[in-house]
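Hi there,

I know you've been waiting on this one. I reran it after we fixed the sequence typo, so this is the corrected version. Both the input and the resulting structure follow.
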Amino acid sequence: MKRARTAAAVAALAAVLGVAGCAEDQPPDPITITDGRACLAVERDTVEATLGVRFDTSVPASVDQTSTCVLAQQGQAYPDLTVTMSQSDADVVIFQVTAVPAGATAVADLGRIAYQVTLPAGTAPDGTSSGPALELGWLSAAPRLMTLRYTWPAGATDADVTTLAPKLLDLAHGIEHALLVGPTLG
């Protein structure tokens, strides 16, 4: 289900951005996501500062080696931000063949390989119509498959997507950095 996958992506991002760091004299451990931890680690202030959108609700999900979190606004189906993180031993070729959706464009300097794609409007399980969704997917240098998806409410425009794209990429870079070096203070 697309929302479940999106929720997993949000969880991963949140976990990377919001976990506290280690003492200065010790190198931080890379982030490890465990059942339910992804949403507990979400730093909503960081997401708000980066994207300009405040989320007040988080919903975690974990299945096997995949952790997901959906950030939302209470009482509204959209907008939402979904982070998915899965352990993986995939290489660049496998990622290109199996994970990159049709119509996606390559994104430079994110993980080992990355894509961006705008998805058409859809419908939530409760019947609420959405606007488009912007998805970033990447094969992290820490052996993980990552997705980060922002879905707008109905009525969002192409200009909304264009405006948010570099901000979502900034958030993805922050997540990738945290995956590799672990969380930091401050």
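Quick highlight: The first strand starts at residue 57 and ends at 63.

Best,
R. S.
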